[in-house]
Amino acid sequence: MKIGFIGLGIMGKPMSKNLLTAGYRLVVFDVNAAPMKELSALGAETAASPKEVAAKCDVVVTMLPNSPHVKAVVSGPRGVIEGAGPGKTVIDMSSIAPLASREIASLLAEKGVEMLDAPVSGGEPKAIDGTLSVMVGGKKDVFERCYPLMKAMAASVVRVGDTGAGNVAKLANQIVVALNIAAMSEALVFAAKAGVRPDLVYQAIRGGLAGSTVLDAKAPLVMDRKFSPGFRINLHIKDLGNVLETSREIGVPLPMTAAVMEMMQAIKVDGLGDADHCSLVRHYERMAHIEVNR
Ligand code: NAD
Hints:
Number of helices: 14
Strand order of the largest sheet: 3-2-1-4-5-6
Bound molecules: nicotinamide-adenine-dinucleotide
Largest sheet: 6 strands, parallel
């Protein structure tokens, strides 16, 4: 089976390397030439357009920033749709709006092409280790056929429903993470301003009901003032934008998500869009005139 891979950024490059390691023949494309060269040196074939990737491959994986990029790659000029036909499959592993996934899937279906939306969580370290979590939307038989391919990049691959369901799960994940970071920020700033050492508060509460993966991953970074990404504020704003767009379409008020979105926007305006999302704490620190240190 020949696999196409489009989008060789922070996530796509290590994911495609893991496919090569697993023995798949690969054809790659990115608008940026540097990662294409790197993959070519490892044995991948390079293509000049998404159309060429689709013409040469049975399955095309996309790992792009957001909905407009996936739409452009699939249905824009020299897009996947021009090179694809019946029997081929697109697996979009980008985090995009679920409604966009459904639109793209129905465009592909008109040409007899199957699609899975299969966003991931885990970030760059797990992309490198091949231990991502993949949440998949799409037909059961297509999922089963593509399972071994996705498993070559992941520790867990779970089908959560039909087309768009993978991105609904991913956006739910991003709500939980954003609100956890906000709660952690409020708690640490509160403790610091009350004159109690945040590192001792963290040690005291992490084993109880307040403990969480977010608290363990992010509280030490905040106290050590390490704000390099990780997962950028700009990408979290993109995801919460997709959450709020979807919530308006389906009629679900999300007051907490909307509030955290506005604080992330404020952090971006302060020039921290490329910092890790735990830099949300700096918004709270400015409001309270206190810094969270060990
Ligand atoms: P990135 O910006 O590093 O990579 C995107 C790649 O797509 C770049 O190499 C870019 O050149 C390429 N690209 C953009 N437009 C293109 C086009 N029209 N044709 C071909 N290539 C094009 O982003 P990333 O961090 O790899 O994230 C990719 C997706 O994965 C996003 O949806 C993101 O939200 C999601 N994600 C990221 C992380 C993370 O920690 N970085 C974690 C989980 C999920």
